[in-house]
Amino acid sequence: MMKAVCLLSGGMDSSTLAYVAKNRGYDILALHLNYGQRTERKELACAKKIADLLDAEAFIEIRLDYFTMFGASSLTDQKIAVEEYDPGRMHMPTTYVPFRNANLLSIATSFAEARGADAIFIGVQSLDYSGYPDCRPQFIEAFQNVIDLGTKDTTKITLFAPFIAMTKADILKEGIKLNVPYEHTWSCYRNEEKACGTCGSCHFRKEAFAAVGRRDPLQYED
């Protein structure tokens, strides 16, 4: 059986990603990373549920509390407000966590090499989301080189980012085909009970469900 480390946040994209990896024939090694984000308890619960539904071979939770010490992101610093979605925004959103994906992928590579995994799956996208620099195709390509150079000569790990050139609606369509249980996923940056409905992540989730003509199973404050 092929094995894949899946970065499983409990969100809509990463949950769909895990179902894609399973559909491709991989046994799932689920990796969930808490980095002090506002909704970490809800995300953890969702990630565990998805991993259970996929009969994951392993579920590893790792804390990266140093991100709260660094600050500079509204996800990890309570003194910085999570912005409302603004279609005219020209600046990097406050939800950007500096160089986060490099940290996550480094840990995923260690996990994959230790367990003899063939692949790592990450659910980044670069089309209609928030413009984070560590979601760009060039970053993923560069990190594949890092994996190749930084692991044993006998280690062969392929980094997959299958959603990199897809819209949120495209990802949702793929998930619907695979019967992803979106009621067990979470997207809101602010809340853990009812989703706020107005942060960037809520906006793009709601927009995707509207685009495909499906009802979003989450409850929203608005």
Structural class designation = alpha/beta
Radius of gyration: 17 Å
CATH architecture: 3-Layer(aba) Sandwich
Q: State which percent range the strand residues make up.
A: 5-15%
SS elements, strand count: 5
Low-confidence stretches: none
> How many domains, as an integer?
1
At CATH level 3, the topology is Rossmann fold
Largest sheet: 5 strands, parallel
Strand order of the largest sheet: 3-2-1-4-5
Helix % is 25-40%
CATH class: Alpha Beta
> What is the N-to-C order of secondary-structure elements (H for helix, E for strand)?
EHEHEHHEHEHH
> Globular, elongated, flat, extended or rod-shaped: what is the shape?
globular
What is the CATH superfamily? HUPs
Estimate the mean pLDDT confidence.
96
End-to-end gap: 45 Å
What does this structure look like?
It is a single chain. Helix content is 38%, strand content 12%. The mean pLDDT is 96. Strands 3-2-1-4-5 form a five-stranded parallel β-sheet, sandwiched between helices. 40% of the residues are buried. The chain contains seven helices and five strands. The chain has one domain: Rossmann fold, CATH 3.40.50.620. By secondary structure, it is of the alpha/beta class. Helix 1 (12-23) packs across helix 6 and helix 6 (168-177) crosses helix 7 (200-212).
